[in-house]
Amino acid sequence: MANRIVVLGGGTGGTLVANRLRRRLGRAEAEIVVVDEDDRHVYQPGLLFVPFGLAHVDDLVRPRHAQLHTGVDLVERAVESVDLAAREVRLAGGTVLAYDVLVVATGAVLQPEETDGLTGPGWMERVFTFYDPAGAAALADAIAAFERGRIVVSVVDMPIKCPVAPLEFCFLADWYLRRRKIRDAVDLVFVTPLDGAFTKPVCNHELSGLLREKGVEVVTEFSTGTVDGPGGRLVSYDGREVAFDLAVVVPLHGGAKYVERSPGLGDELGFVTVDEHTLQSRSHPEVFAIGDAAGIPTSKAGSVAHFAGEVLVENVVHVLAGAEPTASFDGHTNCFIESGFDKALLIDFNYETEPLRGHFPSVVGLPLLRESRLNHLGKLAFEWLYWHVLLPGHDIPGVGAAMPERGKSFPERGRARERVR
After folding, report:
1. Per the count of CB atoms within 10 A, which of 59, 109, 285, 364 is most buried?
2. Distance between CA atoms of 230 and 122, rounded to whole angstroms?
3. In whole angstroms, what is the distance from residue 91 CA to residue 360 CA?
4. Where are the alpha helices (DSSP H) in 123-164?
């Protein structure tokens, strides 16, 4: 009898893992079932462009079932809970799915209701988010009608999906307002709970410099406790206030609700606790997690799911064969950062190595930590790669799961060479 692999979530991580497993394992070896509550797969990186008229929501959504290989079944039901002891997934309506291997890939979920006032008066009128399709579309109308005043981009708390996206929004807003010739009439403010623009020090230095160049005010260590839509105020837990005429808020993120209803599956935020290298649960070896759902110390970005997918599939195959996992994920993350005016930066890093200067994926390639039109074209080309390479579970030629070291400038190695001389 074939083993049953149940994949919870038909987003980036769940789709590419299911497809990679289907290509790796024959139907006699494994039955593969993907569970999601709807049949709408959203290309989330494209939502950033919607408020500026550079993309339309309808073009970013495709059917989930059409992205899955033949031989992968899609069940359209919400997940109620996971019974780890019984190895069963309980779905809405009473359906129960037994599994031999479980892959959790239900991503990170927006929780705007957790912030006082965020979804109250003013929501979708002068307070928006571009992190979901409806919010991005509504924000497009609001920004098109905006003539003067104060636009505040606020991150409520970390972690969030695509940590660079709020910064990209600031850069694109600067470009958009200059194109409309009203930039001098608009103040742009970036509000973050962090002590800098980004979590990685080297990258933070570069991005903070860009924000200064573009005239974006940065308010750090601001933990938003209340959003006063009618009064146009963000209020932090320590009593500080930031005024706005238009607020673009990145809400609190957490894991899927069913994780909280499944004892032993996740942490206090609802993210699934797994080993950061094998992506396997330490207490239940038949359970794995990938993408934004995984509680591992790396960015919640689509590239992480792609790189981790290769490792996870290898380890699932080993577990099904009764062996220990051997493949190891190094936290490889790769992000394009759109900076406006047809330019972008590219960063590439992992658990141990910060974003460095150089080129990707080797000595010759895209420039790292530097604005260029080539990176902008790479950002645009990524959408085609997403639908035709990443989701189908193919490898990108010349780009493996591990972070490449060739082409990067490692400062400590440079100093070592100098000492040898």
Report:
1. 109
2. 6
3. 43
4. 133-145
| Chain centre distance of CA 413 | 31
Q: Of the given ranges (31-35, 55-59, 389-393, 396-400), which has the lowest mean pLDDT?
A: 396-400
What integer pLDDT is reported at residue 205 of this predicted model? Answer: 83
Is residue 39 within 8 Å of residue 63, measured between CB atoms? Answer: yes
Tell me if 392 sits within 8 A of 384, measured CB to CB. no
9 and 309 Cβ atoms separated by less than 8 Å: no
Q: What is the dihedral of CA 370, 53, 58, 91, to 10 degrees?
A: 60
Residue 113, judged by CB atoms within 10 A of its CB (0-12, 13-18, 19+), counts as exposed
Residue 265 is classified by DSSP as S
Nearest Cα neighbor of 352 from 203, 200, 207 is 200
pLDDT tens column, 76-88: 999 999 999 999 9
| pLDDT tens track for 157-196 | 999 999 999 999 999 999 999 999 999 999 999 999 999 8
- Beta strands per DSSP E along 2-69: 3-8, 30-36, 40-42, 61-63
Which segments of the chain belong to CATH 3.50.50.60?
3-110+254-320, 112-252
Query: Which amino acid would we find at residue 216?
Result: V
Q: Which CATH architecture has domain 3-110+254-320?
A: 3-Layer(bba) Sandwich (3.50)
Angle, in degrees to the nearest 10, between helices 201-213 and 165-179: 20
How far apart CA 407 and CA 149 sit, in angstroms, is: 44
Q: Report in angstroms the alpha-carbon separations of 65 from 25, 37, 117, 214, 416.
A: 19, 12, 37, 43, 53
